[in-house]
Amino acid sequence: ACGGSTSSNGSSGEEKSYNLKMSVTVGEGSTWYEGAKKLADDVEKETDGRIKIEVFSNEQLSGGDSGKAVEGLAKGSIDLTFNSTIIYSILDPKFGVASAPFLFDNLDQVDKVFAGKGGEMIKDLLAEKGVHALGYGENGFRQLTNSKVNVKTPDDLQGLKIRIPGITMYTDLFRELGTDPATMTFSEVFTALQQGTIDGQENPIDVIYSAKLNEVQDYLTLWNYSYDPLVLGINKELYDSMSDDDKALFDRLGKEAAEYQVKITREREAEQIKELEGKGMTVYTPSADEIEVFKETVQPIYEKYESIWGADLLEAFQER
Amino acid sequence: MTAITLFGSFITLIALRVPIAVSLAVSSIIVLFISNGFGSFEVVTDIMYTSVAKFTLLAIPFFILAGVIMDHIGISKRLIDFAQALVGHRKGGIVLVTVLVAVFFAAISGSGPATVAAIGGILIPAMIKNGYRKETAGGLVASAGAIGIIIPPSIALIIFAVVAGDQIPITINRLFMAGIVPGILVGIGLFVAGMYVRNRDIKRGIFNQSQEMQIRKSTSKEKWDAFIRAIPGLLMPVIILGGIYGGFFTPTEAAVVAVMYGLIIGMFILRKRYFKVLYKIFIESAVQTAVVMIIVSAASVFAYIVTTEQIASTVSNVVLGISDNKYIILLLINIILLIAGAFIDAISAFYIFVPILLPIMLQLDVDPTVFGIFMTINLAIGLFTPPVGLNLYVAASMSKTNIIQISRGVLPFIIASIIVLLIVTYIPIITTFLPDLLGVK
Amino acid sequence: MKILDYFEEIILFITFLTITLITFANILSRNIFKFSFSFTEEITINLLVLLTFVGTALGVRRYAHLGFTLVYDLAGKLGKKVIIVISSIISLALFSILLIYGYEMVQFQMKISQTTPALGMPQWILSLAMPLGALLCLIRTVQVAVTELKQVNKDSSKSQINNENKEIKIAESEEQKGEVKI
Ligand code: NA
Ligand code: NA
User: Which residue stretches of C32-162 are H helix?
Assistant: First the structure.
């Protein structure tokens, strides 16, 4: 069942050896790649090379397509991946709950939910889809950039053409906010921003920074409007077929690798914001009152999506 | 070892007349089977599916469609008439007309052979009538048609952006802008070579100079009329490039606008025949699109093997082991690509070579834009080098020569293009100054 | 086979027209009505897959696919037959893999009820493009192989009078079909 990998009996008694393939969405300079690399190195070291993980950047294992990577992970043609829960919503729209608008005020709330019942429920949901979650990484809070106006309130957003990921919830949300949302493949975003085909986009800081969007965008609003968690996942059939020792090893090292990825992402983010500001971007952090206005504006989204996400799941994510 | 299996089986299959797309996929499947058995074949379908289902690639069918429409509604003939009226009466005027029209049609069409087909039907007979040998006529049109993939819009440059985009951020807009000047340079090179052949043949007494003078100078009125009739064609690049750089559309959208423009113009030109022709246009474009896209699809599996089996790093170690001199390596790479281009098509070559060569280029501090352009010129030359050259085949049939005759006829143009290729490779500013000047990143 | 021709052509015509119209309507709506329905792009890119695989099948019949024919051209009657048989078997092998594993892909997507991200459409319906196209390619490959084998017999019985002319004629007839490739 583990297509992209070979598993054969190792020399040391019953212990099986593995050559596994892991896919991450973004490039080699990313924290995703570093986190995956740490897992690969740790596993190889602790098993004296019995288990090897080869890490591939830019979703090279699925022709550059994240959706296909998640599908591949679920069916076992890819062994491990780092993918956003936003991508997982093609398997079940419930995964969208983690990115609900203005759900979290800060990272402390995030950590608490993912370490608690919310994290457990997502893990169960993943298991149903054939994925065993080793840990949660972080793409970060998604922030807004644009070339027109320093966005402080929903009024500032009216009529802006904003590129969003191709997920229904975001489309509904950005309509609710009064913008003119457009989905577009990310590789065309820089060009489209530069030529003025669109006015703005939203992404976590690391993406904004590595794509050098500051060259084509003047305003950055740190509104923390949608949290974007990563799942460090392993194909469940593969995981279940492992010895108890190997399972425990993957659970421990996977959790560590995910935590490491979260840590370096947060460290870098602070520096990156400073650098973006240094390069001429106007960085604005809305006040608590201003965020409150946004929250009220997007209430209809909660009304519409509560039934899709499920009341239990939403409640677990709203627990403080 | 894996590299030898992969490339060895690929070459064997090609030699057995297996279509290039099938050869790419099957040689990859052989390697997959050796390392993983049957269990890994689902990767093949996954990658063949996702590599085609890409928004950026949507520009390809539209640019193909736009080119086919423009050809079917007679736009190329109008462009030729206009160029004839301007410079056709001069000595060697038809050479200039051919190059001018090729450069211009290149700004409409995204593909090389389509450019040959669009202009060759009229220009090859015209050249022969003007006293040129048929292999010279065929050779010039075959080579001039290749400018179609250097000057935007270009299917080749879109593919480069997609393939290179896995490693570095690079935009189609920048590549398109960067291709203009080198494309014109190739045109100048071909014009010079054409004039050289003409003068050489006069000396040898195998050029009938009396025929050449038959075209008289056009009057201002004739020029003006020809201009008016050429306007629909002349506007096309304005819409495409103006639309993209004016911020109205993405390249994909520009392509579809070009299609709509062509369809509307066609309605006025074709009138009653319109709907019958329309069906034919779409089917023909669909087949042309499939021929390109199935190679994209299969070559992506090949590129997957190159990546996952670490073939890229093996090859680049070998290449960088030969020399650490940037200029020698650039020369070496150009030679490899010219040889490869003699046998395989441009799109396969991008998928096979970009994952291998781009890391080397980055290590040598070569601007990826420059790399994209000189690689494209290289593969454009491949379109008219024997034994496998699509432009060559199309032009051979149009000029009623066989492949050996036309290979002789095209030689001066190959040499001229290689000279331009080396100039573009070694003087990067030729490529970068226009996009840099206009701030296109 | 006539029916198959129409079937393929109609699919290609409708698919291509739909892709064109959706994309164009999207530009219009965005620039004029300030309303973007670019989420439809997930339909267009899946239709591009359909266009590719069905177009590939028609391309097989029209001899449109790129290949290297020098060895074949130089081969004798028996050599030509051997090459036709081997190359067809290799093509058939690939299209069988695409049919079988394409079908498995469709089944898996049905099983986990995978949807498209923006419209929430069942992905498997769109993914059918691949096994369907592969099936058509299989049929076309057999058809062309049979035709070619017959042609080899016919050509050799007439003896090779003028190779040069024949070459041009073949090239011309391809040209007339409009199979001009990048
Ligand atoms: Na072009
Ligand atoms: Na060639």
Answer: 41-61, 70-74, 77-111, 123-127, 129-157
- Within 10 A of B364 (CB to CB), how many other CB atoms are there? 16
Hey, of A54, A191, A209, A237, which one would you mutate to test binding to chain B, going by the most B CBs within 10 A of its CB? A191
Cα–Cα distance, A90 to B338 (Å, whole number): 44
Classify the complex by whether its ipTM is higher than 0.90, answering yes or no: no
Taking CA atoms, C118 is separated from A85, A169, A190, A207, C63, in Å, by 15, 8, 22, 21, 38
For testing the chain A interface, which of C115, C127, C130 should be mutated: the one with the most A CBs within 10 Å?
C115
Cα–Cα dist A164/A160, whole Å? 12
pLDDT at A12 over 80: no
- Give the Å distances, CA to CA, from C58 to B66, B72, B113, C3: 21, 21, 20, 13
The domain ranges of chain C are 2-154
Look at residue C161 and tell me whether its pLDDT is greater than 90: no
**Other CB atoms within 10 Å distance of the CB of residue B322:** 10
pLDDT at C172: 41
User: Exposure pattern of A58-96 as b/e (b: 16+ CB <10 Å)?
Assistant: bbbbbbbbbbbbbbbbbbbbbbbbbbbbbbbbbbbbbbb
The mean of the pLDDT values for chain C is 85
| A189 in contact with chain C, both atoms CB, cutoff 8 A | no
Global pTM reads: 0.87
Q: Which two tokens stand for residue B212?
A: 């050449």
Q: What is the mean predicted confidence (pLDDT) over A264-288?
A: 95
Instruction: Select from A6, A63, A196 the Cβ nearest to the Cβ of B47.
Output: A63
CA–CA separation, B248 and B240 (whole Å)? 10
Q: Alpha-carbon distance A92 to B196, whole Å? A: 68
Within 10 angstroms of residue B125's Cβ, the number of other Cβ atoms is 15
Residue C179 has pLDDT above 60, yes or no: no
**Residue type for B241, please?**
L
